[in-house]
Amino acid sequence: MRLDYTSDLWWKNAVIYCLDVETYADSDGDGVGDFRGLIEKVDYLAGLGVTCIWLMPFYPSPNRDDGYDISDFYGVDPRLGTLGDFVEFIRTAGDRGIRVILDLVVNHTSDEHPWFTESRSSKDSPRRDWYVWRAKPSPSPASLAFPDKETSNWQLDRRTGEYYLHRFYRFQPDLNIANPAVRDEICKIAAFWLALGVSGFRMDAVPFLLELDGISDHMDGDPKGWLRSLRAFVGRRNGEALLLGEVNTAMKDLSSYFGGADGDALHMEFAFLLNQSLWLSLARGEAEPLEQVISSLPVVPHDNAWATFLRNHDELTLDKLTVSQREEVFAAFGPKPAMQMYGHGLRRRTATMLGGDGPRLRMAWSLMFSLPGTPVVFMGDEIGMGEQLKIPDRYSVRVPMHWTRARNGGFSTAPPAELVRPLPGGAFAPAKVNVEDQRRDPDSLLRFVRHLVRARREAPELGWGTSTLIETEHPSLFAHRCDWEDDAVIAIHNLGSRPASAELALGDGAKGVHDLLADVEERAGRGGRLMVELEGYGGRWLRVRR
Fold first, then answer.
1. What local confidence, expressed as pLDDT, does residue 1 receive?
2. Is 5 helix (H, G, I), strand (E, B) or coil?
3. CB 3.0–4.6 Å: which of 5, 12, 479, 506 could bond 510 by disulfide?
């Protein structure tokens, strides 16, 4: 009998959709998205088939870092609505069977947060030790998050004549994770939102959060031990709660954030190394980089999972590739300096990098949805939205959602100059790319992604199964098999533009396959073998029939 894979390990077979309330739907015409507008769009998300919404920060903030500079962890930005609106959104999403997770951004605060205001008021302040202060700058930690904007991790505060630590922007002072009172407060923040009905958190910049370099020589317990404690606390408040970590680190360190073989720290990690190799494979039209990284990734504990994605809400980081590999991806998908960032990232969206809606883009979507793990979709990518490179830094991809071909893409009735961000133009303008038109078109990208979402939810083997790479003779073919209980799904994709074929060994007793995307049956040949032919940028998901 199959396990109930929809219960407490719901994330193993979920489809997660990341959105920013500020840029999703404006209900009152002020040019800024809000919770009431989002509530009106919940049925769209339910129709798409997503099972979990990940909300980017919506908390009160000076908004100097798109809301990641938080001034109150227990509230809602007044521009976006009220706490009551938030609760109504949670109820509405829950009625449609959709869970909600929030960004938990607790490695720093805004310099306008009351905690920091009190901390900097005096060296004797009760909250002085909630942040990291030094009479003289210590050696800076290993890396700067934004090397184009900051040259040091230490900033002089003239009020007390001491320096405070910031790994991100200078207006985002780091919290002192070595202080037990700070760790207790983080638990309180999580408990507050769990009590309002959320199903977990996407934890921002986890390696930075747990790093003691520059903070303290020691703390009461190992930082990753505290991460285990946080997971245990969250689990006591909600037995089905999820901790999904932003962990972009070296291969050798990845398993420790899961909690080792026990898997008792983060439930999920974003598969950054997998994503970077995926884009290298797409640039080359060859499967080898993707195969190599999958072969090297640590084994995920049974109750944990990777979160896979084509594109996230930040720059498309390529920092773990070699310089020459990075240059290959730049040449293929972002050759102009304005398309690049920090020397190791891209400021473009998926559709523009892959040439708009066509076989290559659709193959990439099919490939991502079939990879072992849980797929994550960034808002607007399901219709092939583009970026606006006139917007600086990472914000170029965080443009307002395109709902219709009307003015402002149906996002807002405000004058265009009053929109929170300008919209893309040209071939990716709302008149060319929008939800309304694609809903009516049976061959649209939106319809295709919706089909993939449904197929992915009906193929729990991909989320729960044991994945094995399948060798093929053609370098452009990437194939893998996911076995779970008595079932198996084989996914095979052609990363090249020319047709390619492979003979698959389905296994003893296999009678054939059911193509999950085309909904057709094929019989196996002698010995349970099947010849599969793929057009350029083709892809198939095949459930083995016995």
1. 39
2. coil
3. 506
